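Summarise what follows for lecture notes:
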Amino acid sequence: MNIKKVFLFSALSLAILFSLSSVFAAEMDKGMFISDLYGSVMVKKSGAKDFVAAGKDMQLSVNDEIKTGKDSFCEIAFDKEMQTLVSMKENSHLIINKAVSDPLTNKEETFLDLESGSVMSKVKKLTAEGSQFKIKTPTSIVGVRGASFEVKVVE
């Protein structure tokens, strides 16, 4: 009788563990990376004190900051298929505030903060309910569900 209780308890514990792991793993950071760049491009990784030189294929995370210098350019891919791209023009400063996707529902949320400069964005069509792609500037917020558009901060 004792062995049956231990087996039942173990099986029940494993079932709960697997169901909880799928709940917590549902929302994942997108696989963002620098797909192209030239000139002076600097990245301050989340939690770091200083900016470092960026490189092609450099992985990016939430709360990373990217800056481009004079006559410089940086293209950020928000998926490995490169269907959503943000191209930073010269003298731009961008912060990745949120970039997550849920593989179970296909819901995607991307929130960027453009501190200065300008970006050209090509956003794949977001079909899952609740999906969002937004760029905030000091004076406005732009949101789309699939489009190409430019956002510029004029000082």
